[in-house]
Amino acid sequence: MTATPTQLERDGDRMIVNLGPSHPATHGTLRLVLELEGEVVRKATPEIGYLHRGVEKLGEHLSYHQFIPLTDRLNYCSSLMNNVGYTLAVEKLLGIQDPARSQVIRVLVSELARIGDHIICVGINAVDLGAYTAFLYLFKERETLYDLFEMAAGQRLHTSFTRIGGLMRDLPDTFLPLLEQFLESMPRTLDEMEKLLTRNPIWYDRTRGVGKITPEDAINWGYTGPCLRAAGVPQDLRKAQPYLGYETYDFDIPVGTSGDVYDRYLVRAEEMRQSLRIVRQCVDRLKELGPGPILIEDYKVALPPKEKVYTRMESLIHHFKLVMHGIDMPVGEVYSATEAANGELGYYLVSDGGKSPYRIHVRPPCFPIFNSFDEQVRGGLIADALAVMGAMNVIAGELDR
Amino acid sequence: MILERIEERLPGAILEHHAFRGDDTLLVAPERIPQVAEALFEEGFQLLVDVTAVDWPERDPRFDVVYHFLNLASQARLRVKTRVNEGETVPTLTGRYRNADWAEREVFDLFGIPFEGHPNLERLLMWKDFPGHPLRKDFPLDGGDVFCNDVGASYAGDARTLNP
User: Fold this and answer.
1) Domain architecture of chain B: domains with CATH
2) C-alpha distances out from residue B115 to A103, A228, A383, B51, B133, Å
3) Same domain, yes or no, for A118 and A18?
4) Whole-angstrom Cα distance, residue B135 to residue B64?
5) Structural domain tally of chain A?
6) Among candidates B47, B103, B141 on the partner chain, residue whose Cβ is nearest the Cβ of A219
7) Å from A196 to nearest chain B CA?
8) What is the pLDDT of residues A65-81, one digit of tens each?
9) Residues B125-164: pLDDT tens digits?
10) Which residues of A touch B25 (CB under 8 A)?
11) Is the same domain home to A33 and A104?
């Protein structure tokens, strides 16, 4: 919706509205300073940093393994993906690869985390615009997801599931039966959600044309993930630069046309279905593969099993060396990126061969996207600003690090 | 390949290059960063993934400013590095890549490296009168809170002069 000329011409009559740092619609602690003329946003200044915990600084003083729990707290809506992305970066630095079974489980939990993240993004975006029911249906499924995460990692939110060279542990026997239930009920929930939102005239009017962006602008702003794909650029690292064997899975990349909030919603909805497809293939593969190692057996990188530590001298030494002196890292620097729910999640590691990384930098996907917030909402209504904000899926934890 | 083309367009711009684990890295002089970025943009590296920095206190020049570029057509990645000393500036890329705005502000905030020509070079993550630049190696891990300990207080006293 555009403003009438009379509103535009009125000058010197601006109201400053402070949205946040703790406001129900900001999803985390971030602050927006909105300059309004009536209901029209003339300027939006995001103020970030309220959730800055110095993760990168801390990382320079922790060992490579000790950083994994900190990655949980970046995008806390899909912490499993952060775990996977980080361990892949360290493995790239080391030049190693995790075992086949671990790779399949990593893909499986990543896709479940992607569904969980999109559930939050779509559900909360709908709540912000007054549609409460879809949110409730979706969050029921999210509970099942978190039960699954708890089974796998012992934690609902802060999973710390991966280890350098593999996983913390294998999936428990109860995991796959519950996953089957989820795979059965989630498509129905998605159908219900789409019935409630996709053709809903209020949802359509509130989101269509809001936060439009051209593909050129989206690339220039550094967009990645669903927001870039909604603008019509079919960039998905799972297809474009496959990792963890994504090239062997069968799935499609949904692409939008106008980049507005409605297209972002459609892209996310379809991505959830595609993720379900990948999860189904993972389940089949796990059954095919059968039991196997989930952590590499290089004891200079991964801890040896406890039985060996207690019974064999050599394993005890490996255990001691690994805990006290850390992994023997090569000197060098790597940038490793994975397709997280929000876009490209990159880790830049600089190693000087020491126990801790010399420098560790996280490239959060929503950081460049949120940078464009002012341009996205300028000239629109204040209610649209919240729609754009929700569709950007700004997660303060990874934004501020 | 991209190396030769850049070398051809801008002779002498690439001071050094290496590849480690498949990551190509170019080293460029700070004043040539905008030219190199422009050339990269025309070569298809149109997505500026990230800007960050690394502090090497014992080295001269002290800082590495690191840019990561992505070519969406060929899916090639390129890392461009430049070296600056304390107090030296790096030309901004905000004219070409708009997301350089916050990325450069973050580097300025956490490392104290100023970007010349940046439209709004202010702190991003830390608050305005925060003393010092947290990601420098000589910044204490406890944050150098003046109320916490003496080390922090002395550091904060020094750091204020770095951040007028």
Assistant:
1) 2-125 (3.30.460.80), 127-164 (no CATH)
2) 42, 28, 35, 12, 15
3) no
4) 13
5) 2
6) B47
7) 35
8) 889 999 988 888 888 99
9) 888 777 788 888 888 776 555 544 444 444 444 444 333 3
10) 333
11) no
